[in-house]
Amino acid sequence: TALAGFFRISLSRGKSIITVRDELEHVRNYLMIQHMRYKNKFTYTVDAEDEVLDLASLKLILQPLVENAIIHGISPKGQGGRIHVRSWMEGRRIWISVADTGRGMARERLEEIRRALARGEEKATGVGVGNIYRRVHGMYQDGEIFIYSSEGRGTVVQMAFTP
């Protein structure tokens, strides 16, 4: 059922804009599939304020971030972890956050990624994060992405934009 839901939203009749509700459903389906694949190695929560659910969002901006959290954060850590996806409003802006308790990044790597994003160098950041950064900045005049990480503690990626 999760796989069918995942593909349904991935296709979305070719639309590039969907509701935040659908984007969160898509990431829930992905998390459910990966939770089974990784044999319950991590736990996850997906929370959103009611006021954001029916607002428009770019499609497929969360799944790559969650995938990074699993592959680069939690999986290498070996002892499991937690992923928390949430969305809320501040003023007229939507905020979406993906946080994990994975291995995190060294300060040097984090700064390298931030510089590469600012220069638009997708290969240096990883295709997923670079693609999301480019799409959010291209679609929303005030679109921003913030990345925070602490080695041994985890990573948080936050997006903010006005729909």
Characterise the protein shown here.
The chain is of the alpha+beta class and 163 residues long. The protein contains six helices and seven strands, in the order αβαββαββαααββ. It has helices at residues 2-11, 20-37, 63-74, 107-119, 122-125, 127-139; strands at residues 17-19, 42-48, 56-58, 81-90, 93-100, 144-150, 154-161. It has a five-stranded mixed beta sheet with strand order 2-4-5-7-6. α1 crosses α2 (20-37). It is globular. The model has no long low-confidence stretch (mean pLDDT 88).
Short description:
By secondary structure, the protein is of the alpha+beta class. It contains six helices and seven strands, in the order H-E-H-E-E-H-E-E-H-H-H-E-E. The model has no long low-confidence stretch (mean pLDDT 88).
List the helices and strands and how they pair.
Elements: H1 2-11, E1 17-19, H2 20-37, E2 42-48, E3 56-58, H3 63-74, E4 81-90, E5 93-100, H4 107-119, H5 122-125, H6 127-139, E6 144-150, E7 154-161
Helix pairs in contact: 1-2
